[in-house]
Design a protein that fits this description.
CATH topology of the domain at 33-56 and 79-180: AOC barrel-like
Structural class: alpha+beta
Shape: globular
CATH architecture of the domain at 33-56 and 79-180: Beta Barrel
Length: about 180
């Protein structure tokens, strides 16, 4: 048996496998459908969960030593929301900027950390055929944000991409979805 010949066969096999994998990636990327969708949202409800009592309890009944208490961030003394607070927003969705054609509903659940920053999960239930699921960081000091679309149901099963929100006229928010399916 010739060891040099076996190495040559293995190298050729490896090149063939890499070529097949590369070709399948190109084919799947070419087959991916890109879709843009724009909706307008208007807030219809807010449920706010203030955790001030938990923060106070945590300062007194803390299993960590006093050194850990010194590491706690200083409060800005503002109105909040504060770290640990949760806000759940209900939204009505429209397909036009005049807010005349209903397109569905949405819910954002935002878990606040410090300086009015939150990690939000969003569920957009669209009349056009399913629900989109997105999540990402939101800075509530500015009026724009982009979160990651990680999936959906029915017509949006397997969708991925991003949802970018910006202020729109009439107390609305314009949400541009860039999807890959």
């Amino acid at each position: 048996m010739n060891p040099g010949r076996n190495r040559g066969h293995r190298a050729a096999f490896l090149v063939l496998v890499v070529g097949i994998v590369f070709a399948s990636v190109l084919v799947s990327a070419a087959g991916a459908r890109r879709e843009k969708l724009t909706v307008y949202s208007v807030a219809t409800g807010l449920q706010y969960i203030n955790t001030a009592d938990d923060r106070a309890r945590g300062q007194i009944n803390n299993p960590l030593d006093s050194t850990a208490n010194k590491l706690a961030p200083k409060s800005s003394g503002g109105k909040g929301p504060f770290a640990g607070d949760i806000a759940v927003y209900a939204l009505r969705l429209y397909s036009d900027s005049a807010l005349k054609r209903a397109a569905g509903s949405a819910v954002y659940t935002c878990y606040f950390n410090y300086d009015r920053h939150a990690l939000c999960q969003a569920y957009y239930k669209l009349r056009a055929g399913g629900t989109l699921v997105a999540a990402g960081p939101v800075d509530f000091k500015i009026s724009t944000f982009t979160i990651v679309v990680s999936g959906g149901t029915n017509g949006y099963l397997g969708a991925r991409g991003e949802a970018s929100a910006a202020a729109a006229p009439g107390n609305a928010q314009k949400i541009d979805f860039k999807l890959i399916r």
